[in-house]
Fold this sequence. Notes:
alpha/beta; five-stranded mixed beta sheet
Amino acid sequence: MEEIGVEWQIRAIRGATTVSENTVEAIRAAVMELLDEVEARNQLDPTEIISATFTVTRDLDAVFPAAIARNRPNWDNVPMLDVQQMHVEGSLERCIRLLIHINLRVSHIQVCHTYLRQAQTLRPDWSVPQPGVLPPTAVKSQVR
């Protein structure tokens, strides 16, 4: 139902995480954690999501991330796609990336891109602080 006088804008939200091993359980835990964070930090209503694309590195093939997301409340009608991330030698392993396109009210000015676990190194400027884990910039300064 469209609200009168409310302006909408299509926005993109990025995110990424890593898993410790190529198992259904490890991938499920990582995807759920990532989607929990993305939803909470952006106060998302999944019914406003236009589409979601998951990419996985070539070392992850135990389960499709979209199959996991489809079991979340209100995600069953979100068009989703799983694709393999282009392999670049030396790039982050066991990584799941996410791109969501969503309709947001214009008043919803800022989106929070969510990078968890080892994926924090991909975009330290967008990383989510985790209890007991030093941010990548703090680790770099301690290594010097």
